[in-house]
Write a structure and sequence with these properties.
The structure holds two protein chains of two kinds. By secondary structure, chain A is α+β, with helices and mostly antiparallel strands. Chain A is built from four helices and nine strands. Chain B is an alpha+beta fold. The chains are: A alpha+beta, B alpha+beta.
Chain lengths: 161, 154
């Protein structure tokens, strides 16, 4: 009979008891722990929402007033319509939806951009597959050449990636 | 002794070392591979900059003359009277933040610092402890520079 001194087992037994489980353990470790941990998770949701907000406020094609120069943060009330903003942001289908609530002076206006997604705003409250943001920005609204103080509430609805 | 018998323990040790190496790799590299962007924390263009820019250019009418908040800040420093500035500032940020955020604005001219905030008024329950801030520099009536810093927690 042949024994291994270290483990005090027969060669065949040591193979069965030690080597086979170690191989399986290694495979499980590699498959379920090491390989998944090497996938880098790049969370760009916050950045995407910030880009949408900034486009709205800084771009001449979106809301920014221009009198030769573009004035970021100064909302041109004539540009506050869904068709223009949808074109400016280029949002359609299952990408992002934007809800804008503008309060200035005695006026209150709200619009929805890409209704396919903005209609799903109620799902933001649940811990589902939606990623939403809600930010209020202090704006000046240009109406008939007058600058009026107001607040623009920007709600962005998107899917979790 | 049969040929190759001495190789089995080495094979087992090799496997054990492999497993230990994998565990070590997991500990060292596993938790560090989540990246996320927090653009509000970065320097650049954000909503806070817009809030500050719009605060500075908010129109103010004094004795039928139209000024901006920027003019009022410079005027307050030259007269050393900040009553109207405080009143208008509080009105603007009450509208902008609607008691949902903490805000603090400070004006500094050559070491002379003046600040207003709602830190004592709002019972804030936010989770973040850090203020985000935006800075602007505006000129006084005699060409000096006033540093304006707006801070917020929402």
């Amino acid at each position: 009979m042949i024994y291994l001194g270290l483990f005090n087992l027969k060669t065949e037994e040591s193979l069965l008891i030690l080597v086979v489980p170690i191989i399986f353990l290694s495979l499980i470790l590699v498959l379920f722990l090491v390989i998944p941990s090497t996938y880098s998770k790049l969370d760009t949701e916050e950045a995407t929402h910030a880009i949408i907000r900034n486009n709205l406020l800084y771009s001449r094609n979106c809301l920014a007033y221009e009198n030769g120069n573009v004035i970021p943060g100064l909302v041109d009330i004539n540009k506050f319509n869904p068709d223009r903003l949808q074109k400016c942001l280029g949002l359609k289908g299952d990408t992002y939806g934007v809800l804008l609530d503008l309060e200035y002076g005695e006026n209150k206006k709200n619009i929805e951009i890409n209704e396919v997604m903005s209609d799903r705003v109620n799902f933001c409250l649940s811990k589902g597959s939606f990623e939403c943001s809600d930010e209020k920005v202090y704006v000046l609204v240009n109406e008939n050449g007058e600058s009026i103080s107001g607040v623009l509430d920007i709600i962005i609805v998107g899917f979790k990636k | 002794m049969r040929k190759g018998i001495g190789q089995y323990p080495m094979f087992v040790y090799g496997l054990i070392i492999l497993v230990l190496t994998l565990i070590l790799a997991l500990i060292l590299f596993g938790p560090r591979l989540d990246f996320s962007f927090s653009p509000e924390k970065n320097e650049g263009y954000g909503s806070l900059d817009i809030n500050l820019m719009n605060y500075l250019r908010t129109p103010v009418i004094i004795e039928n003359l139209k000024f901006s908040m920027m003019d009022l800040i410079a005027y307050s420093f030259s007269n050393n009277d900040f009553t109207l500035l405080q009143e208008r500032t509080e009105n603007i940020f009450k509208l902008a933040y609607q008691d949902e955020c903490l805000w603090d604005i400070s004006f500094e001219l050559e070491g002379d610092k003046k600040s207003f905030s709602n830190l004592n008024e709002v019972n804030f329950k936010g989770e973040r402890a850090e203020f985000d801030s935006a800075i602007a520099v505006i000129p006084t009536l005699d060409g000096k520079a006033i540093n304006v810093r707006l801070k917020e927690i929402c």
